[in-house]
Amino acid sequence: MNTTCQFLLGTGFLAASCAMVHAAEKASKPNIIFILCDDMGYGDLGCYGQKYIQTPHLDRMAEEGMRFTQAYAGSPVSAPSRASLMTGQHSGHGHVRGNKEYWRNVEHIPYGVNTDFSVVGQEPYDPAHIILPEIMKKNGYTTGMFGKWAGGYEGSCSTPDKRGIDEYYGFICQFQAHLYYPNFLNRFSKSKGDTKTVRVVMEENIQYPMYGEDYKKRTQYSADMIHQEALKWIDSQDGKEPFYGFFTYTLPHAELAQPNDSILQHYKKQFFEDKTWGGNEGSRYNPAVYTHAEFAGMITRLDAYVGEILAKLKEKGIDENTLVIFSSDNGPHEEGGADPAFFGRDGQLRGLKRQCYEGGIRVPFIVRWPEKIKAGTVNHHQLAFYDVMPTFCELIGDKKFPKKYINKKVAGDCFDGISFAPTLFGKNDEQKKHDFLYWEFHETNQIGVRMGDWKMVVKAGKPHLYNLADDIHEDHDVAAQHPDIVEKMKDIVKQEHRPSDYFKVTLPE
């Protein structure tokens, strides 16, 4: 063989080798799917002790992966909890700390952004602070989100098309998501050539009213539609790039409504002595009959969605290289006829949605990654939603986090999380732990701090102290017996709270 041929062969081999290395690097990055449901309590799944509701797929997911017992949402309500996951910040630092909503006539539009149509949605994420999908995009990921956005109203500076999402389908406005047969959903799709998030009108539904006797003549059930789009998106992944899917399903959030199929029929037979909720004047929810059956059916329906996602991953042969996480955005609610006491939905924890007691913020958290995470593991590591961002960054090899993502032009810009990747891999001796976890919520004027087994709940400025080691239900306020602990935790509040014009709380006395 002549020298020229040898040189060309070598060059070609080098190019091919480089391409193979590049492809291998992409393949080595795991696909990630985070499934976030809505208002599911700590005790709503069989694997967390639920006796009335069938959740075989999530129970199996726990058997095949790791189930956390001390995982916490970012907030006791939806928008700020999701903001904590998206921004890597706790609710004393982040911009979005409540369900602040914009619609109809608005006196003030944050960040000077104007819209050409009626405003519908929540307070936008701060555009100067990077969010999780944007980080995943910077690391070569294809991104898809299906379900509830709640990170900015329509036309704002913070909609999926502007914040690192390639494909989106669902509710931009979480208030619209209170009804399961809506007039429209929102969509953004780079693959379809969309340049911005748009409304998708549900023609079959508009002819029927949103409230009243004819409401359930609507045929397009939004939860099913969103799930089918999520499955299509998974199916469209060709393996050229790793993917990150954020599936923010609205189940089992009120209203209590779903198709009258085999799932609901099963529970109507199980709860033959059921309750009826007639609705309240001015309520956002439609009246409901068979309320226990409706609620149980919604959780089992969600469980079926999870089963179909896991089956799809196996069908495509990408199961072993896909990390799947399941959790809830906050604790259980008692609106629209929901009855958390009947189901023991708090899992023996005190408190509901909108409260900084354990029942409002401690949530189910299951992680599955075949051959990477030891099957059947129950873990007691304390984590919060703001830990997800640094964990993902460690898993995908992003060495820029956090320093390169801090916006130095923004005073106090920061990230509050600690990666729990060592815990996932069973390296407990390498796992860093939080000195404390922190929450604040303006609607109920509450602040929560957990420090080891100590838990302080500040209500309208008054601190209440509990020892979770022997008082998991937070029944016995021992603040008077431990003034030193109270003072230490009050100092944490003063240190972590940053003033907010929109979301004000009373600091401890």
What does this structure look like?
This protein is α/β, with parallel strands linked by helices and 509 residues long. It contains 13 helices and 20 strands. It has helices at residues 3-28, 56-63, 78-87, 132-138, 203-206, 222-236, 262-270, 291-315, 340-343, 358-361, 388-395, 421-424, 483-496; strands spanning 31-37, 66-68, 71-72, 101-104, 119-122, 142-148, 167-171, 184-189, 198-201, 243-248, 276-277, 288-289, 322-328, 365-368, 377-379, 383-384, 437-441, 446-451, 454-459, 462-467. The strands form five sheets. A ten-stranded mixed β-sheet has the order 9-8-7-6-10-1-13-14-2-15, with helices on both faces. β17 (437-441) and β18 form a beta hairpin. α6 runs parallel beside α8 and α7 (262-270) packs across α8 (291-315). The longest helix is centred in the N-terminal third of the chain and has 26 residues, at 3-28. It is globular, with a radius of gyration of 23 Å. The chain starts with a helix and ends in a 13-residue tail after the last helix.
